[in-house]
Amino acid sequence: MHIGKKTLTLALLIMAASAIAPGMAFAQPQVAAEIGRDAPDFTLVNLAGEEVSLYEALESGPVLLDFWALWCKPCLRALPGTNKLHTEFKDRGFTVLTINTDSPRSTAKVKPYVKSKGYEFEVLMDPNRSLQRLYRFSQIPKVYLIGQDRKIAYAQLGYSTELEQRLHGEVAKLMPAAAPEAETKTDADHEEGMN
Amino acid sequence: MQRYAAFDFGRSRIHVGNFYEIFGRGLLFRSYEERDIRVDNNVDGALFRGEAGGFRGKAFSGRMRNTGPTRSAEREDVLRGTDLEYRVPSIGSANVVLGGSYVLQSLSNELGERFRLEEEAYAGRGSIAHPLFDLYGEYARINRLDREDVIALLGTMPTKGVGHYIALSMFPVDFLTFSAEYKRYDHFRFTSMSDPGSDINNPPSLTRENSYSLVSRNPHQIDPDDEKGFQIEAVATPRYGTTVTLNRSETAKIDEDLFHHDVAFNEWYGEVRHEVNDEVTVAAVYDYQRDEKRGIQTHTPVLDIEYYPAGKGWALRGEYQFQERDVFVSPLERIERSHFALVEWSVNNDVIISMTAEHATSVDPSRPQQDDFLMTQVDYRINQNHSFTVAGGKRQAGFVCVGGVCRFEPAFEGVEVKLRSSF
Q1: B314 vs A50: CB contact, 8 Å cut-off?
Q2: Among residues B148, B380, B286, B278, which one has the least CA distance to residue A18?
Q3: Which residue of B has its CA nearest to A70?
Q4: Domains and CATH numbers, chain A
Q5: Cβ neighbours around A98 below 10 Å, total
Q6: pLDDT, tens only, B329-355
Q7: What ipTM score was computed for the predicted complex, to two decimals?
């Protein structure tokens, strides 16, 4: 390869400058500011053509909003974890509302994709990204965990396996305690795991 | 920037200020923001949204922001629009929605009321959502002014425009789904009268939205004045962790035979994505495109590997792409080849470092050429609305496209600093 000295120097300089990045302590400060804010209500149409509203969903328990699009690879990578949360907590009043933000160009492909992956969570369509403006953010994947007090309990931007685990912990913290038998079983399992 | 006041009463809302809105799937009206292609045609005015007894309505009046190259950010045309949907009470397990839209554009210019221009557009649509299939159809018409004095001023233009769009999705079994779409746009460009570069509508282009660099380098740019075509996609999950996607799209001029090989744009796309385990995903892609208008035919294989280590905040992704580009338009005939590699390191949830390298050759019998490109980029998310990017090196010219609307990015060498903010 013949790359000019100037180009190579520039590219390497940027690399060198960025080498300090791993040492920078980022703990998603950008989303911390959102926690505790009121979650605005909205109504969108799901894949079955029915209207779903946030505040109505909150009547049965906490709600997770997960914003995604077919072109966003980290979003697609995060969806199996979102489906697991739905499966694990749905019987305890927890609702997962995923918000698809693909433009009308890809609308027809969303339901086939969701069905082919066997996802069971609710998918709401927002082709003009009205919720991103309502919640005032621009990048995805983004999740909001909303408590029954209609306040944002947790927010997360981006995807990594660490964030997936952290989100699971935050959902579990917000859920009302499980039935006594289930609790006993969980504790026993935990002790067994420790041994 | 958004600035508005909104008043909610029951299930209705009045919004005064600037706003974005869409009617149906955008055949008639879509006001939206897409930063990658520098489109922001928000409307400044008043918008009403309301619901009652199975009906859902929207109505607005305002001025759309021009974003075309000639009149950027001016607002001259007055737009008025209304959209009404009715949800038919459930028929078995199917949800049926019927709807209609109307948009009127008017422009009073300095020549006075005598030259007040008007264009109106209307559409009807219907959709059925069923557990086994979804069907959506929309028919739209544009009526342009047919006054002799205006024609003398602006030149002749067709007085009628027509657009059809149909989409059918089917889910016969859990592991196999299909979608098929058809379009027909005849003199269907609905643009600002004061700035023909600014679109009022945004009909679906029915070409695949590709995310790989070389695959999206020679895109099809939608021509709403003379275009028909189809797109079919099948998604299969034959075993857990494996997804196969096949996509086929074709676009032709309205008076051409759609199934003849001489179409305007033609694409085949195949992708196999496999989760090797919880941490590693591998994807293999092959794409073929032929664009008669620009005289380019491409073959592009891609290999894509993602690594997300368990319980960690970092991730690594690598891509290798190869493209053979046959430029067959005379007298520029040549074959070009590109090898492209990308390494992307998500250092943590806020910092991404990526490096791209490309080796490009042009096999022109009279003038063989080759060139190399190396680019390093660091993206840092400052907060939820602001991000900072530093890039250095050299990159190829190419198109950036969203929804069939494209912007050409020229070749670049040097350092680029970007601060992206939304308010």
Answers
A1: no
A2: B380
A3: B209
A4: 48-175 (3.40.30.10)
A5: 23
A6: 877 788 999 999 999 998 887 888 999
A7: 0.87
